[in-house]
Amino acid sequence: MSRPLEGIRVVDLTVVWSGPGATALLGDLGAEVIRLEANNRTSRQVSATVTRESMRAVGYHGGTYPDRDPEPRPYDRTALFAWHARNKLSACCNLETPEGHQAALDLLAISDVLVENNSNGTLEKLGLGHERLLELNPRLIVARMPPMGMSGPMSSYLGYGPNFNALVGIAAMDGYEGETPDTAGENYHMDEAAPAGLAFAVLAALWDRERTGVGGLVEFPQAENVMAEVGEFVLDYQMNRRNPPILGNSDPHLLQDVFESAEPDRWVAVSVRHDADWAALTEVAGRPDWAPLGADADGRRRHSAALRARIADWVRRHPADRVVELLQAAGVPAGEVMTEDRLLADPHLAARGWFVERSHPAVGTHRFPGQPFRADGFETVFGRPLPGFGEDNDYVYRELLGYPEERYRDLRERGLVTDEQLA
Amino acid sequence: MSRPETSAAGVPGRPDGAGEERPQVFDGVRVIDLSRWVAGEYATKLFGDFGADVIKVEKPGEGSLTRRWGPFPNDVPHPERSALFLHLNTNKRSIAIDLHDPAGVALLLDLVGTADAVVESFRPGHLERLGLGPEVLLARNPRLVLTRISAFGQTGPYRDREATGIVLQAMGGPMHATGAAGRAPLRKPGLLEHYTIGRAAGYATLAGLFHARRTGRGSVVDVSGQEVLLSGADRRASYLMSTAFSGWIPPRGVRSVHRSGNLFTGPFRARDGYVMVYVTTREFWNRLVNLVGAGDDEFLARYLDRQSLGADWEHFTRYVSDWFAARSKIEIMERGEAARIPLTALLDVSELLEHPHYRGRNLFVRGTHPQAGSLEYVGPPWRMAGGFRLRRTAPLLDEHGAEIRAELAAAPTAGDAPQPTAADEGSTR
User: Interface pTM (ipTM) of the complex?
Assistant: First the structure.
């Protein structure tokens, strides 16, 4: 068995969520993903200056660090990095210095893919715009992820995931049933949608390169990528001149909601899809007298609130596991709203080996979240769980770039290539 | 600086930007879509929209479940006018095949012999019961990629559990942390989770195709919807990582806590709608204070550089809310943008369709469907040479049945996948 992207080298200039999530998916397929990280910037979402003391001062709980301890190298120890860092390599490279600029060009000349999610114009300012890079290496695929695209009146708008959820129609339909839009502060769906889309786009460009021999630009406007997910509402508006309402946990086709069990803050999601589900639910609940009210789709729609109140009343009397077990045994869709600790202990995920135990000196031994799919017939990779900052400097500068010893030593002595992040 | 010989040298090149005439990326690729719901249909749409020949195999007389979902014009159900089906099945052909009939199974196997990938989303075990399990399909076509989408995967104790979108969000997504503190967990709206799963299935399928192109060997891909969501960048994977690291469990309603100090986030009511504020740094904070407090020296002195609002939380929030409430959402967004504050308007779907940004980028593409008429569809998710094109609107049920049967009858021998050849192997680098 072999890996689909064996021999493909990806230069990773991404930060925060969507970009790093995308390059993780390329690494899973066997690509060599090299993060070029500056030692004078935060490339891993946390500052090098975070200490136990500084966390206490601002009241931060520290839950993103192993044992809630950021020291000694917070940038190697944060979950904000470790969730996506599997298989990746890290080389120190300050792009705004002439030496760093040259090293990046040298690496890009022998690479297949560049992925970046900086704001529009950042690479151009660094002299690394895609036109220049494609001249340097015509087989290179340059994937750029500006949220609103590289052109158009809103292309430079500032924002985070929730801001762009707002600009694609998702935030306006997000909230509790019948209330004003809310929750969007915790809905990061644009970030969710980008990684697999970008990975697909890069694979498509690699596929095309097999035929054409050339790479090229992939413009990946994250907002437009996620807008496909409201595509049916875009058509509905044209058909019926209406915008999607705020439905909360409800759904026009299903009788559904989340219900708190007998255990505090343990909730079960339940859906009734059709008449048979409703009949099964009333039987499980021991309440055949409820059956007529929800016997057909129209009844379930009209009496939705009343029926859900009854389900809530039943669920409240049982432990969450019991509710799920009873309903699933009767063929009714039900599942607990899972907290992270329960997922880590979940027998199904354990049986499928979804979490992957790995060790790294920076964090110790832990179970890492797994990958989105598995294959029989080709190999996927979950190797080193994360790179310490600059951990692969030697490999990248000496082996890949072939820098002579004195040139590399010079970069190190001048602090241009370090094993530590300073910012 | 050196360029290795394995790079561009010796590869027959094609001039970049060859324009509309060049073939689409997946020209020559054939994908069989056995799915009946959003994830599978979105996975195969990605291939069709970028040039593949996607053949949708549908249940005779009934077709895909998305044909019955709607929304429909005037809310009158009609299998050829469901917005969800029309959206998800652009650039596909449809053939009705009864897979419970041996002749149907034989026909499907003939099709599989000509295909590069099959995407299915039946309940685990169903394909096997039809006599179309992975061994059968790969025996027919050893280069085939078979992608199997399910709620909880093809193995494990929950394999046969029933699920809907909200159940998947509950079991896989970050739903325990979404919603307000002290209230019920809140799902994401629409059918977003299904699209997420479909996109991942598309990526996994293409990984398999790439592997088959290089090695000539097929594969079976197991996509568990739950696992796709668990690995998500919407914070779920990072939450899991945090808990593994420290035992910390992300609480619900973090957003409300964030309305303090330099963290001030969430939606606010404008005169004509809502805006989304996402102030996360001292810089943004000061810009916001300066924007809403312009000319109010007392306000500026009180709030510039504040690290924490403490007892002033209510005063500050009311002041900001009043400022927003007096202005239109677009004015607020434009002024926020001018001041470089992450502050955007909540656009309705109707406003997307009219927005000069998206219109100027030609994001929406018009197509005419014999039953649904002329409509604008959401177009390219990304742009690349040989990329997205709307070649045809969604197929009528069995619209291409006769055509596809005729193609199969004319084909030399089923059993060998067409293109590419072993010569492709190893040519990538």
Answer: 0.98
